[in-house]
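Example record used in the benchmark description.
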Amino acid sequence: MTHPTDLDRLALQEQRLQFPSFDADTAWALGSALRTLAEAQGAPITVEVRLGGETVFFHAMAGAPPANADWARRKRNTVELMHRSSYRVGRELARDGQSLEAMMGLPTRDYCSHGGAVPLRVAGSGVVGVVTVSGLPEREDHALAVQAIARLCDVPLEAVALA
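Model output (structure tokens):
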């Protein structure tokens, strides 16, 4: 079920959460921040950060099932194609009674609209990569990614968090 304000907040997140620059060091900081947040919650997640189509950070925490890496790949593919968070894509499709397969002919083996993958935007440049979290319920995967991005972008979490 989509909260009524989710789509507006998801669009706001993509507008506000922009880095001044993003490189391999920033990717490491983002991936490490996600690992720390997940450890604090005892959440066995998989984290992937991609920059320019290349994986620059990957970590599967102890207890994370191998399937998490495949879920991360499928979520990431959706973001790389659509430049919107996988959670936003999923909520828009649910609202419209659509699927990626029906709308664009995308195979579910390679694309999914479950939350957890978020585009990495650089102010003035657009999308330069994707961060993906897999292992929690989709809304929580998304929220964890947003929390880490907001921290690194100096955006107060309460200004962009889902209700």
